Amino acid sequence: MTYDLVIRNGRLVDGTGAAPTTGDIAIVGDTIAAMGKVEGAGRREIDAGGCAITPGFIDLHTHLDAQVGWDPLLAPLTYHGVTTALIGNCGVTFAPCRPTDRALLAEMMESVEDIPRATILGGLPWDWETYGEYLDSIDRLNPAINLAGLVGHSAVRFYVMGQRAIDDQPTPAEIEQIASIVGSSIAEGAFGVSVNRLQGHAMPDGRDIPGTSAGLDELLAIAGAVKSGGGLIQTIPNYAIPMQGEMKILREIGKACHRLLWSAPIAANSQSVAYFNSCVAKMVADGTDVVGLSSPRPGGFISGISAEIFLDLLPAGESWVQMKAMAFDQRLAAVRDPGFRARLIADAAEQRGYKERSARTFPLGSGRSPDWMPPQSESLLSRSQETGKPPAEIWLDAMVESEGRALFLIRSHNRDLAALDEVIDSEWALPGLGDAGAHVTISMDSAFSTLILSHWVRETGRFTLEAAVRRLTSLQARVLGLTDRGVLAVGKRADINVIDTDRIAELQPQMLYDFPGGAAHLSQKAVGYRATICNGTVIVEDDEHTGNRGGRVLRNRAH
Fold first, then answer.
1. Interval 293-343: pLDDT, tens
2. Rounded CA gap, 495 and 534, in Å?
3. Alpha carbon of 141 to those of 22, 27, 154, 369, 501: distances in Å?
4. pLDDT of 196-231, one tens digit each?
């Protein structure tokens, strides 16, 4: 028999957690046709000698809703082995949407997820009103990888209530309509609904986005619609209030819908890990299928003169404001100028919280790959205490010495490395929260799959390869109810990675200016991906995009 593609002589890591075996995989069309010792030839063959063959990775927390409009290759996610991504998280989506409300939804996405409004409005076709029509529209864009979607509570609420959605509570009739639209969106293909309860995710005028303070009656009505449609609820809890009350609300929602996916940056300390473990145990006892997503490393904001922030998101002091308005070459000249440099150091010292931020600002290192997890002794504050230099001076020294290429991470979550080690292998806390497509000028957390294989498998031995791959594939697929992906088996879709596990590594993040209108965004490549295949199409080869696109919009079929 002749196959479309045969991958030869690799270590088959099938996604179930089973020990690897040596063999081949044959593909016909978008489906795995044979495994083991494949006798037939392929119209094309890939030698996987020395490499692992894994299922394509699944990312359950992205915001590629806008980027797909102008970047169907969906970088940087596709540089890191991801073949399926869930969009529509955090309550903010572009559907349902009346034509008169397009600008408002674009402004809300800009305010919450740092995606420029003008880029959104100019980069998408906006040829939909319902959520199902939105899925049809992005399917026509022919994305490189598979996209699954959630309908956003904020968008649904605004569709029903208009401007009242921001500050008011819905009437009983409006609650019924909100739940009905969520249900119809799931029937049209959404995998569920996303709900955002985190204060600080705000409209451009500073008010919380619609639904942040929704009452339990509204949330339970939505949960009922989700359960009827066979979907899930994704939520961000409000970490600004006492967690006992917030987790009680999550428990009630979970009982009503039976499948809950929540954003869980839980590794604040060992006590927080223990608390959330106990909360999950209670949810499971209630019959809730609950999964939390948590970054497998400290996450936060990229700092450097090539980035969009410096020592803080909103640096105080005239000199820092002036430098932020400069182009890169001007910034580099400014940090080299003794007079301007002295002003920068003096102005930084006047910032509120300067010492605290310096304690959680760490260099990413000067090597080819970033070091996301240096010890506390490497923070700007610790180095300042050791050398006697102000933290800002140490930061500026790094910029001068590196010709402006140095980068730092201002840690915002999962800062406690000991607590992080406690939680990363929990069955209910899967790797995620990469936010691909969002916060594009200030963070780069979406390469977590490559970090797991390089750091947690090869460098530390914290995971076996088969355990890590299971966490990136079949466990993520189960959350969405995908039965045709997430494992390597005959008859499954051919979403596959061929990975040189001795070589796999992240490269340093870099700022690019190739979004519509020359808009800036951070990106990050990797090495070690011999090939990434989506639905039988080779989309990445030898760490570079082929230009081919094999993705499609996946639709919830549970109903």
1. 999 999 999 999 998 777 665 556 789 989 988 999 999 999 999 999 999
2. 4
3. 37, 25, 25, 33, 33
4. 998 878 888 889 999 999 999 999 999 999 999 999
Q: Which residue has the tokens 């609820």?
A: 233
**In one letter, which amino acid is 321?**
V
Burial class (CB in 10 A: 0-12, 13-18, 19+), 11: buried
CB count in 10 Å sphere of residue 14: 23
Structure-token match 């959680």, residue found: 360
Residues 76, 93: Cα–Cα separation, whole Å: 21
Angle at Cα 284 formed by Cα 281 and Cα 288, nearest 5°?
145
For residues 80 and 14, give the distance between their C-alpha atoms in angstroms, rounded to a whole number. Answer: 18
Query: Average model confidence (pLDDT) for the chain?
Result: 93
In the β-sheet with 299-303, what is the strand arrangement from edge to edge? 299-303, 408-413, 361-363
Peptide bond preceding 315: is omega within 30 degrees of 0, i.e. cis? Answer: no
Q: Is the dihedral of CA 137, 195, 421, 287 positive or negative?
A: negative
Q: To the nearest 10°, report the CA torsion of 174, 180, 186, 192.
A: 40
User: In this structure, is the dihedral angle defined by the CA atoms of residues 538, 544, 546 and 547, taken in order, positive or negative?
Assistant: positive
Residue type, 442: I
Q: Which of 309, 382, 315, 379 is nearest to 350 (CA)?
A: 315
The residues, ordered by sequence, that sit 6+ positions from 269 with a Cβ below 8 Å of its Cβ are 416, 419
Closest Cα to residue 14, out of 448, 496, 551? 496
Give CA–CA dist 230/490, Å, rounded: 26
397 contacts 285 by C-beta, under 8 angstroms: no
Which residues share a beta bridge with 522? 511
Residue 518: burial class (beta carbons within 10 Å; 0-12, 13-18, 19+): exposed
